[in-house]
Amino acid sequence: MAAASPPLAPETEPQLVCELTGVTKAFGAVRAVDDVSLDIAAGSLTCLIGPNGAGKSTLLGCISGFHFVDSGVVQIEGHDVSRWPPHRRARHGLATVFQTTRPLAELDVLDNAAVGAHVRSRTGFVESMLRPPWQWREQHRVRLEAREALAIIGLDERANDPAAVLPLGQLRLLAVARALAQRPSVLLLDEPAAGLRAGEKTHLVDALRTLSGRGLTMVLVEHDMQFVGALADRVVVLDRGRVIADGTPAEVRDDPQVIAAYLGSTTL
Ligand SMILES: Nc1ncnc2c1ncn2[C@@H]1O[C@H](COP(=O)(O)OP(=O)(O)O)[C@@H](O)[C@H]1O
Ligand SMILES: [Mg+2]
After folding, report:
1. How far is the CA of 141 from the centre of ligand 1 (A)?
2. Atom of ligand 1 at shortest distance to CA of 52?
3. Cβ–ligand 1 contact at 223 (below 6 Å)
4. Number of H helices, E strands in the chain
5. Which is the CATH superfamily of the domain at 16-85+219-268?
């Protein structure tokens, strides 16, 4: 007998993949993230902006599990993950592209991407290198997923090159591919465009647009407003740990509170 199909969600209530409620994280006397509540809808691309030290990276860390919240709740697909360690959240569908990522220089591009696919496999990456031949099937799956991730990101032609020879722009794309190979439901990116040249930024924007078009939910920290404007449906502005604006790129750009937060800064 066929299973009953689930009730359709009303169109006015988008499915939430990530819900933050009253999230607070302090380092000593500094409230890096201060009572932040945010709902992230499935398939959305949210840009988190704000001056240096506003708490953007800390907030991403609270979602990924790199930081445990002091108070508040982090929910992923309806599960309270607030007390889960990062690896458990990763297996549950969270992937992060960190601000600085170094490839495993001695491996080729494909094997670097495959590291991501191992997050979900039973054995770790190093064990898999020592795997007996009867476990080839798992290995085959991992490499297929890694190759697919490279193709989505436009790096498939470099699959067999040593990662050490890639320029910064392609290394950043490789970091995204590695995260994608985890097959995440939410991808967190911390300043993925930092240090890239204009042409490299364009490639990254294209790649992220492709992912967005495929329905991947993304939360991206960035302060290049041109980059943000080219990508985001929604911009959330943090200042001193608090959300001071939340809207479309045009809405936040004209918000007096946002302009004040950025006074003296040339990034907006
Ligand atoms: N591991 C840490 N230990 C102590 N203070 C930290 C740590 N991480 C961040 N902070 C402080 O928390 C605040 C927010 O930092 P961060 O989240 O890195 O800001 P952003 O990413 O917006 O630049 C800053 O005042 C920073 O100095
Ligand atoms: Mg940061």
Report:
1. 39
2. 23
3. no
4. 10, 10
5. P-loop containing nucleotide triphosphate hydrolases (3.40.50.300)
